[in-house]
Amino acid sequence: MRPDSDACLKLILPRALEEQVVEFLLHRPQLAGAFVACAVDGHGSSRFMVSAGEEVRGRTERVKIEILTREDMARELVQELRALLPDTNVSYWITAVLAAGSFS
Question: Rounded to two decimals, what is the model's pTM?
């Protein structure tokens, strides 16, 4: 987390892209800094389901990555990722951060 963080970039991506995106972020500490990643299930449109099993279950396996950063840096990361991963079914959103810190 950057001390001047004012935004949270959330990325939702297929699990097959996790290592590539994590490597990308690790090589951009000036933009991404520290981040978290966790496995999640995506629900909704079946056009994102990649296997018959996912269609039967009604959900698809995804990874969610959350990055606390500055808004301008979040937008730059989105542009770079869009260029790196065109047409890969990655979703994102940027939200305002009202407060952030740690208890250490």
Answer: 0.84
